[in-house]
């Protein structure tokens, strides 16, 4: 079932994985979806979704040799990379909580302006964005989905250091499953006492989620149905009695989708940089047509007919 989206995981000995194209069974299943798509472990309440940006520039002067990260805010990271016509300058920064920036496009534009100010002649060649989850206790979660289960494991919460934390998670899981002796892996255990250090931060994260939930449901009350948004824009409205509707205009086509995340009912917000609907609660994302892109949600949005 490679390439099939998993809907749910049930059973015990064996574990049953249900996907869009069928089912499969296994003695051990690892849910490595960044944020687990299974809510049983409550990991969505122990981590925050963060988006970050990286831009590539050619012709930047002076050139940068190495990697650099700013100590102040807003954050900036610089590094060099080989390019087809000379070295490229990679610039990162202006990250934010998923669904919580009024204009991601403005964040990218600000990063471009900052680069051209400090590196005259820099010409933008490529842009990227990424999403990762930062846990309340600052370490990845690696181990059982719920205490006492060795047949259903999770890994995630890499805090934007997936090249290292992802490898560490793989080593920790393989050691656990193959009866190895990797002593350092204990600090990453998904249910270790180390999580208690993150309780205050987890409380703050969930207070913010509650605020975003309340704000999301109140905001559409001030925006009844009206004209279609301008090109590249989107907004959440109350077109009719019931759930709010997300309306966007992309490539001249007006689209309407339910503006409520199927995960835990957060009201979605328009991402004007990537033309997507993002959930400010736990980071689920949907494209302009409502198709699921990522996050703990497991199903897409149903298109609203005009």
CATH fold descriptor of the largest domain:
Alpha-Beta Plaits
The Rg value, from CA coordinates, equals: 21 Å
- CATH hierarchy class name of the largest domain: Alpha Beta
Helix content range of the residues, please?
10-25%
Form type: globular
Structural class: alpha+beta
Characterize the structure shown.
It is a single chain. This protein is an alpha+beta fold. It folds into three domains: 6-34 and 137-191, 3-Layer(bba) Sandwich (FAD/NAD(P)-binding domain), CATH 3.50.50; 49-135, Alpha-Beta Plaits, CATH 3.30.70; 216-294, Rieske Iron-sulfur Protein. It is 17% helix and 33% strand. It has three helices and 18 strands. The chain has helices spanning 104-118, 162-177, 199-218; strands spanning 6-10, 15-19, 22-26, 29-34, 47-58, 67-69, 76-81, 88-97, 123-135, 141-144, 152-156, 234-237, 245-250, 253-258, 269-271, 276-278, 285-287, 292-294. Strands 6-7-8-5-9 form a five-stranded antiparallel sheet, covered by helices on one side. Strands 15-16-17-18 form a four-stranded antiparallel sheet, with no helix packed on it. The chain has a three-stranded antiparallel sheet with strand order 1-2-3, with no helix packed on it. A hairpin with a 4-residue loop joins strand 15 (269-271) and strand 16 (276-278). The longest helix has 20 residues, at 199-218. The chain is globular. The mean pLDDT is 92.
């Amino acid at each position: 079932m490679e390439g099939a989206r998993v809907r749910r995981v049930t059973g015990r000995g064996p574990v049953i994985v249900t996907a869009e194209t069928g089912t499969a069974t296994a003695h051990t299943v690892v849910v490595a979806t960044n944020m687990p798509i299974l809510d049983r472990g409550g990991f969505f309440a122990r981590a925050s979704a963060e988006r970050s940006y990286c831009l590539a520039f050619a012709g930047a002067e002076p050139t940068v040799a190495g990697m650099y990260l700013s100590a102040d805010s807003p954050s900036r990271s610089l590094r060099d990379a080989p390019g087809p016509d000379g070295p490229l300058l990679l610039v990162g920064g202006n990250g934010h909580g998923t669904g919580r920036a009024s204009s991601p496009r403005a964040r990218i534009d600000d990063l471009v302006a900052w680069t051209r100010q400090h590196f005259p002649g820099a010409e933008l060649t490529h842009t990227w964005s990424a999403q990762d989850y930062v846990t309340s206790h600052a370490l990845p979660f690696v181990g059982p989905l719920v205490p006492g289960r060795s047949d259903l494991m999770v890994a995630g919460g890499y805090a934007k250091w997936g090249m290292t934390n992802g490898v560490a998670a793989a080593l920790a899981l393989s050691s656990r499953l193959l009866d190895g002796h990797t002593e350092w892996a204990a600090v990453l255990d998904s249910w270790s006492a180390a999580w208690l250090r993150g309780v205050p931060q987890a409380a703050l994260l969930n207070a913010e989620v509650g605020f975003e939930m309340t704000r999301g449901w109140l905001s559409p009350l001030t925006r009844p149905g009206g004209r279609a948004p301008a090109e590249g824009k989107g907004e959440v409205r109350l077109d009719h009695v019931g759930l709010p509707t997300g309306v966007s205009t992309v490539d001249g086509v007006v689209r309407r989708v339910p503006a409520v995340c199927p995960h835990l009912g957060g009201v979605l917000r328009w991402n004007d940089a990537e033309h997507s609907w993002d959930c400010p609660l736990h980071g689920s994302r949907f494209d302009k047509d409502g198709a699921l892109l990522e996050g703990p949600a497991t199903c897409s949005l149903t298109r609203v007919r005009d």
